[in-house]
Amino acid sequence: MREMSHPHLPSHLTRLAQRYGRIYTLRCGNSRDLVSGGGCSVSLGDYSQPWRAQRRLVHGALQRCSHTALHSTIQRQALLLREESQVLIGYNGSAVDLSEDFTVAASNVITMLMFEKEYDKESAELQRLHSCLNKIVSLWGSPWISALDSFPLLRKLPNRPFSRLLEEVARRDDIIGTLLKEFKLTDTHLHMATVDLLIGGTETTAAWLNWAVAFLLHRPQVQSRVYEEMCEVLEDRYPTYSDRYRLPILSALISEVLRMRPVAPLAVPHRALRDSSIAGYFIPKDTVIIPNLFGAHHDPAVWSEPYSFRPERFLEAGGGCARSLLAFGGGARLCLGEAVAKMELFLFTAYLLRDFQFVSCGKEASLPDLMGEASVVLKVKSYQVIAVPRPDGPNQDRAEDHRTHQN
After folding, report:
1. Residue ranges covered by each domain of the chain
2. pLDDT score for 209
3. Strands in 78-229 per DSSP E
C-alpha cells in the first residue's frame, strides 16, 4: 500500500524496476499486483464476453467515422484556436496558461463527433462537464481509491475521497444522461462508452498539447526546425494529415513527447484469467498486471539518454525506435481512440506551430516544470507562455480549401 501511494507513482515504479528488475510483484493485503516496466466501462471493465462485444461496437463506430468529417472537425478546432475572436491571437502577446483552451479544443472534437455540439470556453454546460471530469480523473488516481481494489472492506469504512468520487460520478452521469436524452438514447453501455470517449478524448489530448509546448519552451530550436520544415514542404498552405510522411521532424517531435510523457503512464490494469507466465515469471490466476508505460519509455536498455528530450532520436537509424513506442498501450486494451488521437496530435501541433512561436516569459525560472503531476493522466504543472503570431502564416483562403489536399 505504501508503494502505491507515492505522489509520482510512474517514476517511483520505474525506480523500483531499476532495483528489482523489469518485472516485479507488489503485495497489497491478499492481492498480488505485478508491475511490468518493459513493455460496464470499455476502458476499465472486466475482460468478458459483454465487454468484448461493447468494445467491438465502439471501435467499429470510430472506424466508420468518415476520415473527411474527422479531419474537418479537428481542422476547425485548430483554426478556432488561432482566430482573433477566439483564443491565441486575442491574447495579444500576453503570458497565459493555455491548458483550458487546449481542453476546450480537444473536447469539441469529441462532442462534435458524438453530439454535433460545439462549445465556447464560457459555456456553462462545458464548464460543468470539464469540472466534473477533472475531479474524477484527479480522485481516480488517489491511493485511497486504488486501495479499494486490494482491500474491498474499506468500502464500508468512512473514506472522504471515495465519497467525493461517487458524488462526481453522479454529477457526471446526470450531465451525460441529459446529452444522451436529446438523442433519445438511454442504454447503460452506451452511457459508459460516452463517458470513456469524453474522458479519454479530452483529458489526454489536452494534457499532451500542454506537454508539447512545455518541452518546446525548453528546446526552442526544435520549434524552429519544425516551422522551417513546414515552410519548405507546404509553402503557403496548412498541413493535412496525409502530409505526415513528408514532415518527419514534426512527426519525430510528436513521438518524442509521447515517449517522454505518456499521458496515461500506467496503462489500464490487466487481470490474469488463468495461471500464465511473462518473460519466464509465473503469474498466478487473478494477479493484477500494471503495465508501466512510463518505465518502458525510459528504459536505458531500449532508449539512449532516456531522460533527455531528443526528437532527433526518431530520425536516426530509419526511425526504428518508433517500434518501441507504447504510448497507446497494447493488446486487447489498446486505446480505442488511437487513430483519432494521432490525427488530433498531428493537426493541432502542426497548426499551432505553423501560426505561432511559443516563447517563455523571459526568465529561466519561468520555464515549465517537466516532472508533472501524476494521476490517472500525467499532466504538466500549470505554467504561462506567450504565443507570438507568425508574420507570414498560411493563406487563409487556402486553409478553407484544404480539403482538396486530403486523402
Report:
1. 43-262+307-405
2. 96
3. none
| Fold annotation for 43-262+307-405 | Cytochrome p450 (1.10.630)
CB-based contacts of 231, cutoff 8 Å, min separation 6: none
Tell me how long the chain is.
407
DSSP-derived secondary structure for 282-329? EE-TTPEEEEBHHHHTT-TTTSSSTTS--GGGGGGGGGGGGGG--TT-
Amino acid (one-letter) located at 97: D
- From residue 164, alpha-carbon distances to 2, 169, 351 in Å are 22, 9, 39
Report whether 361 belongs to an annotated binding site.
no
- Report the candidate in 293, 290, 132 with the shortest Cα–Cα distance to residue 203: 132
Q: Is 157 exposed, middle or buried (0-12, 13-18, 19+ CB in 10 A)?
A: exposed
| Phi, psi (rounded to 5 degrees) for 405 | -95, -5
Cell of 186: 438511454
- In whole angstroms, what separates CA 42 from the centre of its chain? 17
Question: Which three-class secondary structure state does DSSP give residue 24?
Answer: strand
DSSP class of 187: -
Burial of 61 (0-12, 13-18, 19+ CB in 10 A): middle
For 382, other C-beta atoms within 10 Å of its C-beta total 11
Reported as type and span, the H/E element at residue 74 is helix 67-82
Q: What's the pTM?
A: 0.79
C-alpha cell at position 405: 489536399
β-pairing, 373-374 vs 378-379, is antiparallel
Show the low-confidence residues of the chain (pLDDT under 70). 1-7, 26-67, 84-86, 141-156, 183-193, 317-320, 331-333, 363-365, 392-407
Assigned C-alpha cell, 228? 522551417
CA distance 134 to 377: 10
Whole-angstrom distance, CA of residue 102 vs CA of residue 70? 17
Identity of the residue numbered 159: N
Backbone angles phi, psi at 226, to 5 degrees: -65, -45
**Res 141: pLDDT:** 67
Q: How far apart are CA 126 and CA 49, in angstroms?
A: 34
Amino acid letter at 111?
T
Cα angle 229, 234, 237 (rounded to 5 degrees) comes to 130
Q: Give the span between the Cα atoms of 85 and 199, in whole angstroms.
A: 27
Taking alpha carbons only, the member of 386, 112, 129, 141 closest to residue 263 is 141
